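Model it.
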Amino acid sequence: MFTIAEIKAAHSNVKSGADFPAYITTIHGMGVIRYDVYVSDGHTDYYGERDFKISSDGKYDQLTISDVSNPGQFKVDLKAHQQGKTDYLTFCKDAAKSGVYKWQVVMKTLTCIYFDGAGQALLAEIIPQ
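Modeled.
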């Protein structure tokens, strides 16, 4: 299976949202089938075959997630990040302000789904390849 160290090494090549598709390809090749990123502190749960799961530590100080979802603003912020206009921490702060609790990436379907604190999907995207 894969390790947090291997995933961190792959993630070190991600400078902006523009680098995201290559990162997904790399970690999928390692055996990651799904992962959930928690906006509150940036920790991630990674899942592999046969119920394999590992979790990373938080990446930044605790963020407050808005109780009020703002999918429209989030779409604007996400687009800016995907175009390389914001760094990862800025994107996470923007997501928190828009009520994004976590996002989930599923390798099989190449989808990224953003959820609010109630578990409602705010936005689903196909990951470009």
